[in-house]
Amino acid sequence: MERYFNRIWYQTPDPPLFLVLLSLVYRLVTKIRKLAYQRNLLHTSGVAVPVLVVGNLSVGGTGKTPLIIWLVAFLRKHGYHPGVISRGYGGQLSKTSTPALLPRNANPVLYGDEAVLIASRTTCPVVIGKSRLSAARHLLLVSNCDIILSDDGLQHLALQRDIEILVIDGMRQFGNQHCLPAGPLREPLSRINTIDLLVCNGNHFPGAFRMDLVGQTLTNLLDQQQQPVSFLRDKPLHVVTGIGNPQRFFQSLKLQGLDFDTRTFPDHHNYTAANLQFDDDSPILMTEKDAVKCYHLANRKIWMLPVEAQFDSTFSDALKHLLEEKHGRLKTT
């Protein structure tokens, strides 16, 4: 099913008519919902601290998690104490209505791979919950954060936000530009016009700041040994992924001179030992998002490649300006 829709969304300019008709219904429902918020039939509520929402228009992976991690470091540099709210996709607790603060060494099966990755990389408080508003309120109750980053909350209109950042997949962009299910868009493309900052992952897009995800150092899952990516060159290699857009990861590895076969699973896949079994002793490589779910399966063959988001100074300057504009000041260290 996933392959079917990816082919229609990203390789076919004219989707089947029945999907276009369903897309029109979807757009009508989303428009009515938005009007309900605008006319106070549904209510938007704020919290006592600024809220920055990081989201996307298209389904699937665009690079939000590395950006959230970068934003946490940026905000700390300028004197803030950030916290993160997330749905906790893929985790069992994401199906419950009660918000939950991630404990130390949180289990990704319970809390979701992205939330656990953010918490482990940033050590900032992370709360997951179905309702972004409830999660934000809970975060303020259990932490001293003075600014909130909402992971993938662009369409969660119940939570008032101060700044919206939209992440665009530079490889696939917006596909055939249809809304679900005829295309990959959660909202019409015109939504771009209301966004504060556009970020394009790995490419240029009109009006967007370019973000590059750079990974140059491998880490072994068993003993945390580190090696340059060149360590795996000219070796048989298995690359295993369970992410939204694995092709972007594969392309980045090829650009670094690696040759490999692939084994792909759906986004947020929970791994078993059988998923990592091969008929040889060749090394296995995965993303850091996959790795947080595989430490209990670790052996010396398994490596991960963490990535860091990189921008030029224009993005930092634009974000500083927005914070000053919205709140009248920018904290400094």
Architecture overview:
The structure is a single chain. The chain is built from nine helices and 15 strands. By secondary structure, the protein is an alpha/beta fold. The protein has two domains: 10-211 and 310-327, Rossmann fold (3-Layer(aba) Sandwich), CATH 3.40.50; 216-306. A nine-stranded mixed sheet has the order 3-4-2-5-1-6-7-8-15, sandwiched between helices. It has a six-stranded mixed sheet with strand order 10-9-14-13-11-12. Strand 9 (217-220) and strand 10 (226-228) form a beta hairpin. Helix 3 (64-77) runs parallel beside helix 5. It starts with a helix and ends in a 6-residue tail after the last helix.
Distance between the termini: 50 Å
Helix content: 25-40%
Number of strands: 15
- Low-confidence stretches are none
Let me know the largest β-sheet. 9 strands, mixed
Provide the gyration radius in Å. 20 Å
Tally of individual helices: 9
List the defining traits of the structure above.
six-stranded mixed sheet; 2 domains; 30% helix; nine-stranded mixed sheet; alpha/beta; 333 residues; Rossmann fold
Summarize this structure briefly.
With 333 residues, the protein is an alpha/beta fold. The protein is 30% helix and 19% strand.
